[in-house]
Amino acid sequence: MKKIVAGLGIGIGVFCALYFLPIFEREKPKISFPEGSPSIGSKGIIKVQIQDNLGLKELHVFVVQKGLSKEVYSEKFPKGTKEKQVQITFEPKKLGLSEGEASLIVELEDASLWRVGKGNKSSRSLPVLIDFTPPQLELLSFTRYVYQNGSGAVLFKTSDDAYEAGVRVGKCFFKAYPKKTQSGMFWKCLFGIPFLCESSQAVVLAKDKAGNESSWALPYVLLPRKIKEDKVSVSENFITTKVYPLLPPDKKNLSPEEAFKYVNEELRLQNDTFIQNLTTNSISQILWKSAFMQLPNSKVMATFGDQRTYLYNGQAIGKSVHLAIDLATSANSPVICANDGIVKFVGNIGIYGNTVIIDHGLGLMTLYAHLSSWTVKEGEEVKKGEIIGYTGATGFAGGDHLHFAVMLSGYPVDPVEWFDQKWLNERILSVVGLEQ
Questions:
Q1: What is the pLDDT of residues 294-352, one digit of tens each?
Q2: Which domains does the chain have, with CATH numbers?
Q3: Which of 174, 285, 390, 422 has its CB surrounded by the most CB atoms within 10 Å?
Q4: Secondary element (H or E) of residue 208
């Protein structure tokens, strides 16, 4: 009887261990895929999220197509690994896969001792589409003559599978905006040839979801534009009243030369990067119809591309390139919106001080900096000639003026062209103003 009771006790103990001890957990590990069925071109990259309450043990990933199965990833996990995002990378052509439907099979085992130590297993399948064919691309119209640091436009047509398109100039990418019609997929793009792109070669690109890309070099003519070189004397008063207030707390002990260098280089880069990221994505249609409007009764004090050398006590302490035009009139003058648009940003941006940015659509935005104050709010629709603020000397400004910039896909271009209705008609609207 004692043996029976002891045996029963042992049995109950084993039963409880199997059902209640964490090491014998019975829940299967979880496998999560990205939404949708991805398209795979010359190189497939798919991120898979895996998770288990007790711990992950082993992962195997296969690509299967028409009876052909190829393992593309495997991993054994260190003890205690409960969650991980795995990036599966493979090249379909090297695996012998052809265009068409395929499946990504993920098999995952956890560290549980359930099933006599074999653990719990999960398996999931993700449909994928193997696609090696790039989208069709047809160039319809483009600006034939573009000035250095100036702007141009292009209109092109693609097959319906095009997912992203635009113009690449060196390291810069200018986004194109699509319009699908019964005649096909049409794309409009405003682009520039600013020196900061480090190249003047312009290439139209169209890419599908699989990453296949078509390209067409634009055979435009680049026209030279003279660049000014200026020497700017930096006074003690400017260092005290303009430079030091812009420094973060941990930089307040810098020497005048070091402080100027920090603001002119590091802070300028931070501010320019912020503006570029902010102005990359735009409204997809043109909100403006006529030439842009210059600040009334203003004089151009500095032009786009001016190369400045700053002198302190007769010694050069820094350089910069002016990426806008400076317009001066009487102090605290009303600043008008250059054209119809929607307010993208209102706030203070370091060296630019109080700033308003207007989105005019199709990647085109204008920036108004060094304002003493503003009269608009983000998201507000504004009309050409409407007052949006008042001139000032906030930020890195040496005196009351308007720093006026024009940006295409986040890259600054010469604003002066945009004041010219004849140029606008011939170089821009004759290209992207066409309606399909």
A1: 999 999 999 999 999 999 999 999 999 999 999 999 999 999 999 999 999 999 999 99
A2: 24-130 (2.60.40.3880), 137-223 (2.60.40.10), 229-415 (2.70.70.10)
A3: 174
A4: strand 202-208
